[in-house]
Amino acid sequence: MPKFRISITAVLVFGSAGTTLIAVAMALYLGFSSAIENTRDLLYQSAERTIDGLIKDISNDLDPVYFHAQSLSTRTLMGDLDPRRLDDWRNTIAELPRTLPQVASAAFIGPDLQGVIYLADDESVLRRDFSMMPQATKLFSTIKENREPRWLRPLWSPIIHKSIVAIAVPLFRIDEFLGIHVAVINLDDFSERLARSLEGTGLTPFVVYENNWLLLHPAIANWAPTPELVAMESIFGQTGFNVVLPDLESVPHEKISRFWEAKIVPLEDAGLMGATSISRLKDNDQTEIFLYRRVKKFGDRNLIVGAHFDRTLLAPEFERLMNYGLLSLLVLALPVLAALGIGGLTVKPIRRLASATQAARGDDLDNVPVLANSRIRELDEAAASFNEMIVGLRERSRIRNLFGKYVPPSIAKKLIEDEGGLEPLNAEATVLFVDLEGFTSLSERLEPRMIAELLNEYFSAMVAIIRQHNGIVTQFQGDAILAIFNIPIADPEHQSNAVLAAVDMLETVSSTEFAGHQLKIRVGINTGEVFAGNVGADDRLNYTVHGDAVNIAARIESMNKDLGTRILIGETTAGKVTSIPLRKLPDVSIRGKKQSAALYAVAEDD
């Protein structure tokens, strides 16, 4: 064992560092020219995600209010709610601060244009005469045509002194029109919440209504119209006057006010996909970038949802990238060389281990090379363990091969795997009993050496066929062979496999000479429950089978002589054989059985 060894942990650390530095160098060399554009695109994509968030936030605020209005309409129609009763309506609306905190106020207006207003801030309820408002009369004349909730035009409310959007739904009891429910959402609070969520990102969110009116933007958080504009509109905003909202040109924010002056940029140049648009507004040395998307909200009204930012927002990222590149180049050379040098220590041992492992996957364990020692501690220990493992596998293979000469290989393998603990069992099995015809007289004419040579050749050929059909030989009784199918390895086709094995054995014996002699065999096959297990003395066991099914197979084999057949098959076996044609023989009596039994022969058996 080498006196000086290196921990593989140190090798991996240095090797990983070298690989990382090489990757950084390649990335700097190949990607630095496009890094600025990539950074810009990342910011664009961040803005696009902001737009997705804005649209989601708008939907999260508006959709529940719409569904609540639908619910009130359904409850009124079913008679569960009567909004004309003040207490009934107040109890229902009082849930709004908890269920819909975005609703600032709500109102119910009866057909006589008398109604009540609920203010969520102080949970007060005010009675109000709407008959003096022409907009209310116009709303009543149009909203009854469709019983679905309808979004009204956004505007500035003189009641709560904020920008709002309202939804109205007619309430019916069957066909009786009871009035209108109106819910109002405070847009100023929503605008402030959006600005806070993007604080520190450099992105400014905005929402434009019908291409001209600024609905949401930090610059209009505290906006209020002039008294003249207030006089022209009311909470319903259904007249022919302009909507009382700030138009883009009047907003005290130079960049958003020039939104339509910005030049559209092709999406492929910006790396964006889908419905998102991008435009740039250049003013001297400054560039404002707008990313926006057109969506439908408030019924079929057009909204432009987006975010804008100054291009100088990219400057810190560009500077950071440049500094990082210079620093990486300075520290790159020496660590890479050190990492490559130390990493080389692991290459040869690992390759040798991989090659030896590949060789060990085959059956020729004797040709697996012995791994040499390594100066790396963990690799040296791995090589030693691998060499010990190969020694153990060779010993195990030799035991299995030697053991397999005395018991079937499948039994030997299972005994080794189970450490000799092959459990006895009762199970259904197909028993095949094969005997040589006239062997007694033949053996009297041959020398013992020739008898052994003949039997060895014959047994080898027969055992190979039995194994090929998933059977195992449990006993050699003189010149007879006892084989079983379905034990100890389950085989759902064991009846058919036993018959196919018998046919192959008969064909092989008919066409082959063994030690210069032509032989003839007789085969008996029967299926039934047997006992299988290790039987014998404490220090010498034999895996065998016992049971009536075994005895019947032997008796059936002996009946071939009387019936002039070569292969006889019991009824319990024949009933499951589908792979080869059989012919039924007349019922016969089997020694030891009171009732006669049906036997079958292979259809082409002479």
Topology:
Blueprint lengths: L7 H71 L7 H8 L2 H4 L3 E7 L4 E6 L4 E6 L4 H10 L6 E2 L3 E3 L4 E12 L2 E11 H11 L6 E6 L3 E4 L10 H6 L21 H4 L5 E3 L1 H4 L6 E7 L2 E12 L3 E10 L4 H46 L16 H27 L5 H9 L7 E12 L2 H7 L2 H21 L2 E7 L2 E6 L8 H18 L1 E2 L2 E2 L2 E17 L2 E7 L1 H11 L1 H4 L3 E4 H4 L7 E3 L3 E2 L6 E2 L1 E4 L4
Parallel strand pairs: 19-21
Antiparallel strand pairs: 1-2, 1-7, 2-3, 4-6, 5-6, 6-7, 8-9, 8-13, 10-11, 11-12, 12-13, 14-16, 14-19, 15-16, 17-18, 19-20, 21-25, 22-25, 23-24
Helix pairs in contact: 1-9, 9-10, 10-11, 13-14
- Uncertain residue ranges: 232-242
Fraction of helical residues: 40-55%
Q: Quaternary state, please?
A: single chain
CATH class of the largest domain: Alpha Beta
Question: Your description of this structure?
Answer:
The protein has 606 residues and is of the alpha+beta class. The protein folds into two domains: 1-351, Beta-Lactamase, CATH 3.30.450; 419-602, 2-Layer Sandwich (Alpha-Beta Plaits), CATH 3.30.70. 44% of the residues lie in helices and 26% in strands. It contains 17 helices and 25 strands. The strands form five sheets. Strands 14, 15, 16, 19, 20, 21, 22 and 25 form an eight-stranded mixed sheet that branches. A hairpin with a 2-residue loop joins strand 11 and strand 12 (286-297). Helix 1 packs across helix 9 and helix 9 runs parallel beside helix 10. The longest helix has 71 residues, at 8-78. The two termini are 72 Å apart. Mean pLDDT is 77; it is low at 232-242.
